[in-house]
Amino acid sequence: MAYQTLIVEIEDSVALIRLNRPEALNALNSELLGELADALKQLDDNDKVRCIVLTGSEKAFAAGADIKEMSEKSFVEMYTSDFFGSEADSLLRTRKPIIAAVAGYALGGGCELAMMCDFIICAENAKFGQPEINLGVVAGIGGTQRLTRFVGKSKSMDMHLTGRFMDATEAERSGLVSRVVPVAQLVPEALAAARKVASKSAVATMVVKECVNRAYETTLREGVLFERRVFHALFATEDQKEGMSAFLEKREPQFRDK
Ligand code: CO8
């Protein structure tokens, strides 16, 4: 998988995607987002891949949408091209788990991209922000909605209205990230987490993803009902029998994704 703006490696059932536009702190332009959508689709279709890690550099996960690319566009150009809408939608269609490993800046579209992943592990130097207000605009790929669900209204308003950055400690305290690790440990820790996810039943991991995401999209009652139905449905899988037998027989399960 050869790309201009990404480096993709696959090892032990885990794919690592590195955003690679160092000259622009991994700013998200059409080329990068198009390549990312393509890579995710291919990895989702690749039976050897069971979990995906998305990362940037030590300085920047991504410093936002590419301001140079956007600055001269008109409303009609943005609207008719559905600027970044289809790329964002295609990221969300990925059924395999995606872990964001964030070091340095995750700003604007970069913060939004991290939040579209399934969970975020960040390095101690991470800085999250939605500074679009400084450019006279607003977040455009879900920031006002997702950050609010992650950290609550008051902190989300603060971030969006002042454009201030949130450091790793605050991000963990606020529930935006699941873990904070030293910079050098970021990718190894994310890959280790991905290998752990990859060792589970792929059917069950897809179901977990659907269930947790449903919590953001429906009422509690409907979400709990959905969970109950898919919990029951998993009893139609061999992996459920294997997982429970392995526990009772005090051995490691051998999941076969069936
Ligand atoms: N776009 C384009 N280029 C960028 C971006 C960006 N978002 N961020 C950094 N760069 C470039 C700089 O222009 C610079 O390039 P050059 O060397 O050619 O001048 C290079 O990266 C290095 O950047 P700095 O010299 O500025 O590095 P610093 O360490 O001094 O500062 C910062 C780092 C604080 C990250 C600073 O670069 C910055 O503030 N960047 C902009 C952050 C920002 O405003 N992000 C939000 C962008 S808007 C957005 O994301 C909207 C999302 C929704 C769009 C979806 C559409 C539907």
TrEMBL record:
SUPFAM superfamilies, A to Z: ClpP/crotonase
What are the GO MF terms of this UniProt record? enoyl-CoA hydratase activity
The record's section on Pfam families has: ECH_1
Per its UniProt record, what Gene3D superfamilies does this chain match?
Answer: 2-enoyl-CoA Hydratase, Chain A, domain 1 (3.90.226.10), Lyase 2-enoyl-coa Hydratase, Chain A, domain 2 (1.10.12.10)
Signal peptide boundaries: none
Q: Keywords on this record?
A: Fatty acid metabolism, Lipid metabolism, Lyase
CDD domains in the cross-refs: crotonase-like (cd06558)
The record's listing under InterPro entries reads: ClpP/crotonase-like_dom_sf, Enoyl-CoA_hyd/isom_CS, Enoyl-CoA_hydra/iso, Enoyl-CoA_hydra_C
Which reaction is catalysed here? a 4-saturated-(3S)-3-hydroxyacyl-CoA = a (3E)-enoyl-CoA + H2O; a (3S)-3-hydroxyacyl-CoA = a (2E)-enoyl-CoA + H2O
Query: What is the top EC class of this enzyme, as a single word?
Result: lyase
Protein name listed in UniProt: enoyl-CoA hydratase
